[in-house]
């Protein structure tokens, strides 16, 4: 959709026509015309049996004249009805512009261009007719052509409006469908991503649990080994202490034995010396 074009479309202005009569007066005039037309038709029907054929012709002419005048008043109401329809569809277009996206704009572009041209043609026709001189004779001469023109404009406008509404509906539906499809795809990708993260997290937790169990087993093995080493070390220390004590005890006994032996040898030597000295004397 060409947004500037549609904004210009929404700013269309109709030529304001000063109304000499109020709505009530216009309605009363139409009612009076209808009453006069009924009278003329009645006179025309009743005059068929009259001896003066001219009366029937005059009544028929009067009826045609009154119907032409009635058309002039009805044309005004038909114009207002057409303007009301245009204002209504402009509201719809404004809503389409406000709620549209790029995809919908692309589909609505050609339709709205065509509608833009149609609406501008209608506006030009309406402005031209409403700017006419309001003298009665011109209204009388143009009453039938204006009525036919309004009818053609209504048909043309209704076709354009239907085209816009149908296209907008399908474009909006298609746009919503594409948006839902896009959301579904994003949701599927998100779910798949979350599932992958969950699987990876579960795998990581499993690896951490295995590592924890391995560390626990190794810690228990190290503790058991340390306990065994401590027991072996204590046993070796006890055995070494016992060997040291036994060695010291044996050395002590040997030293006592040597001391006793030395003492005994000394005594024997002293005895020998004494004996030798006594013999010499």
From TrEMBL:
InterPro entries: Adaptor_Cbl_N_dom_sf, MLKL-like_MCAfunc. GO terms for biological process: cell surface receptor signaling pathway. Gene3D superfamilies: Adaptor protein Cbl, N-terminal domain (1.20.930.20). This is Uncharacterized protein. The lineage of its organism: Eukaryota, Fungi, Dikarya, Basidiomycota, Agaricomycotina.
């Amino acid at each position: 959709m060409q947004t500037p074009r549609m904004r210009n479309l929404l700013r269309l202005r109709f030529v304001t026509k000063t109304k000499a009569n109020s709505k009530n007066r216009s309605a009363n005039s139409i009612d009076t015309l209808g009453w006069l037309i009924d009278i003329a038709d009645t006179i025309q029907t009743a005059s068929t049996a009259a001896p003066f054929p001219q009366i029937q012709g005059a009544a028929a002419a009067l009826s045609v004249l009154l119907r032409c005048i009635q058309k002039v008043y009805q044309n005004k109401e038909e114009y207002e009805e057409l303007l009301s329809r245009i204002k209504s569809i402009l509201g719809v277009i404004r809503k389409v512009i406000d709620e549209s996206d790029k995809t919908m704009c692309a589909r609505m572009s050609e339709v709205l261009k065509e509608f833009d041209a149609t609406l501008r043609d209608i506006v030009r026709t309406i402005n031209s007719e409403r700017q006419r001189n309001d003298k009665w004779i011109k209204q009388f001469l143009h009453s039938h052509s204006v009525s036919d023109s309004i009818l053609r404009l209504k048909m043309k406008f209704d076709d354009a409006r239907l085209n816009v509404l149908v296209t907008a509906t399908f474009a909006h539906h298609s746009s919503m469908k594409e948006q839902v499809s896009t959301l579904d795809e994003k949701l599927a990708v998100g779910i798949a991503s979350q599932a992958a993260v969950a699987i990876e997290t579960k795998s990581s937790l499993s690896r951490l649990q295995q590592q924890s169990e391995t560390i626990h087993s190794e810690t228990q093995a190290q503790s058991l080994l340390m306990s065994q080493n401590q027991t072996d070390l204590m046993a070796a220390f006890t055995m070494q202490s016992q060997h040291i004590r036994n060695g010291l005890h044996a050395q002590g006994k040997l030293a006592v034995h040597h001391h006793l032996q030395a003492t005994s040898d000394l005594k024997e030597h002293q005895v020998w010396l004494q004996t030798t000295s006594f013999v010499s004397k």
